[in-house]
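Per reviewer request, we include the raw input and output of the structure prediction for the construct analysed in the revised manuscript.
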Amino acid sequence: MEKAIIVAAGPGTRLRPYTNDRPKCIIEINGKTILSRIVEALRKNNVKNIVIVTGYKRNEIEKRYPEFVHYHNPDYSNSNILKSLFCAQEEMDEGFIFSYSDIIYGPKIVERLLNSDGDISIIVDVDWEKRYEGRTQHPTDEAELVVVEGNKVVKISKFMNPNIAHGEFIGLTKFTKKGAEILKRNYKRILENRWCRWLINQRFQDAISIEKAYLTDMFQELIDRGYHIENVDICGNPSWIEIDTPQDLKRAQVFLSNVLL
C-alpha cells in the first residue's frame, strides 16, 4: 500500500493562539511540523503518495507542501472528518492509510497496521487511560473508545462507559482495496437514502447529521451492518501522542525530546 490520506481541514480552535494563522498540523514541535513527522513515519514504510485534505488556512499547507496531492473541503466549518475524507474519494480506489493530522506516531505503528489482515483495520491503544493522567484540558470523555470481541470491533464511540472499553482509537486506519470499496459504497447509500431514513430523526450514529459525522460514526454504521473491523492493538506511550490543546503541545515538546519514535 503506497497511499495515505491525511485529513487536515479543521480550525484547531482548542489550540489557539497557536492556530490563529495556521492549521494545527503545521505547528512546529522541536523544529519539525506535526505533518512532517506523520509523513516521515509513513514514508519509512514505503507509503509514498501523500494526499492532504485541507480546509482552514489551506494556503499555509499548500504553500509549505506543494509536493503532496491536495483536496479542499470548502465547507469545513460546517462539516467534520467523514465529509472531509470524501473530498478525496477519487484517491481511494486502490486502498489507503487514513490518518488524523494532529497525532504523532512512529513507523513501527504504521508497520503493524500494514501487516494486519483486515480489509478495514484500526490502531487501538489498550493502555489509553495513562495518556490522560494530568491532561486536564482534554478529558477522557473525548476519547474514541472501542469495545472488542474476539478479533473484531463491536462498538466505537465517545459516549461509552470507559470501564467496558478495550482501548482508544488513535486516528490511524488501513483500508484495503476491498475495504475502501465497502466504505465508498456505504457512504453513497447513506447519502442517497438520508431523507427517507432520517425523516424524523436526522442523527447519524453519534453525530447530529451525516455532515457532522466523524469517521468513527461510519465505522459503527459498518459494524451495525455486519462488516468486520479489525483492531490492531498497541500499548500506549511511548508510541504515539495527540496534540489538541496548548497543554498537549507542551507535553509533546517534552515527549519528543525524550522519545525516539
